[in-house]
Amino acid sequence: MPILHQIDPIAVAVGPLKIHWYGLMYLLGFAVAWWLGRRRVRAGRLPGVDDNGFGDLMFYAMLGVVLGGRIGYILFYDLGPFLQDPVLLFRVWEGGMSFHGGLLGVLAAIAWWSRRHRLHFFDTVDFIAPLVPAGLGFGRLGNYIGGELWGKPTQGTAFEGWGVVFPRALPEPFASMDAATLRAQFDAGLLDAFARHPSQLYQATLEGLVMFCVLVWYSRKPRPRYAVSGLFALLYGCFRFLVEFVREPDAQLGYLAFGWLTMGQLLSVPLVLLGLFWLWRSRRTPTLMPEPR
Description:
Elements: E1 3-4, E2 10-14, E3 17-20, H1 21-42, H2 51-77, H3 79-84, H4 99-117, H5 121-128, H6 132-145, E4 164-165, H7 179-187, H8 199-218, H9 227-243, H10 263-281
Helix pairs in contact: 1-2, 1-6, 2-4, 6-8, 8-9, 9-10
């Protein structure tokens, strides 16, 4: 049976102050990355770097995520409205973050930090890669709790009878109904036709849990330079490309070609190719050996 999504996106409200679950999910992702990163630093997985240096790296990486994610969303998904209203770039509370933009922002931050610490760029990327899926997974859970970035309808497909009814995706008059009335409509079976794939949960599982487990396991022992980065890029690119088949494309873009190609898929192809290239290149590169503290 389908599920009716009626989760309050606000976790805590004190007067005018409202703390959203989406923000708390990002904090959880950062906390897991911080915990794992410190363990890896103390195991000597980034020789010459102490807790203070790692703290700086995480700070710059966070800036890269926020700035790159926002700028990337504008460039890849919302350029037209931005050209008409450039202030849109700063209205982050209206939503709109791009993983691929955030990735470029993080890579820029890593390049700057690595140069300051005289480390090879890809040694740092290999170190950071296993930390990223935690943020991806919790971020997608935040998307689900917020009832945004939903999937395609399951009605009329092999998945009929399965899915989630997202109130924000409903047409009128359902979209204007209060929670109690909407629940009554759902219990009467009148909303089953509007059930959608919970693509946020698919992504949380694949890009978050699966990638986290695989990368943490793979990086437990020293690997040649480029190997961990290559595996990250390959897995994310493949998982994102696949989930896009059941994810609703951005309304302002729709499909780019063939009646199915989305911007998310187009941006994921280079990651798959880069992942394969880096894995191939890692066969002839040195391995950074740990120097436990």
